[in-house]
Amino acid sequence: FHAQCSQRLQAPRMDLCHVPATREKGWYLALMAPNVKGPNYAWLDPSRLYCHPQGLQDCVADLLQPFRGDAIDVVAGIDAMGFILGAAAAATLRKGFLAIRKAGHLCVQTVAQPYTDYSGREKVMEVRTDAIAPGLRVLLVDQWVETGGTMRAAIELVERLGAVVAAPLCVPTGVAAICIENSEGGKWIQERYKCSHCVPAHLQPRFDQHQ
């Protein structure tokens, strides 16, 4: 059984062993899979990147590099894919992890924030009120920032509870995602908060155009 699993993991379609000789920033972006199911789905699926041990480690390292030396009290990940990178970042930093959930899942006292996601759907996110104290320095992590609606709602949510999320003159914690697109919402976030992402500058236009 273990031999069969090993063979499957090393198959050409999902080679978890290959690491390029020169690991430039963003090399692991090539591990992501394009959409093959049509317009009702995201244009790119980053989850295959998380299956690659070195790819995941380098992705998290690149996301955290701008925050090295910064005072961070807790890492918060946004439901659902932000949980993966957020928890990995928290473990790397030896900090706690706070889950920002879609509404209706938490059985404790929460505060809620409505938002519109990248697909135009109206949703509500919530966070437990006992985890955030005034002045808490939060690093917010999500998989992707497309229109910026989800991340902006998360920022508003934790700031309502008194946390600090990378305002330019405040303690520099902030926002991290594999890609922050140069949409109106993405620009709003980058102009106001310290941000980190993994897309090299020469590839950013292609990501913005979903190519």
UniProtKB/TrEMBL annotation:
The family database entries (CDD domains) matched by this protein are listed as:
PRTases_typeI (cd06223)
Report the subcellular localization.
Cytoplasm
Per its record, the protein catalyses: AMP + diphosphate = 5-phospho-alpha-D-ribose 1-diphosphate + adenine
Q: Report the protein name in the record.
A: adenine phosphoribosyltransferase
Q: Which family does it belong to?
A: Belongs to the purine/pyrimidine phosphoribosyltransferase family.
What UniProt keywords are attached to this protein's entry? Answer: Cytoplasm, Glycosyltransferase, Purine salvage, Transferase
Q: Name one Pfam family in it.
A: Pribosyltran
Q: How does it assemble?
A: Homodimer.
In alphabetical order, the GO MF annotations are: adenine phosphoribosyltransferase activity
Q: Give the main EC class.
A: transferase
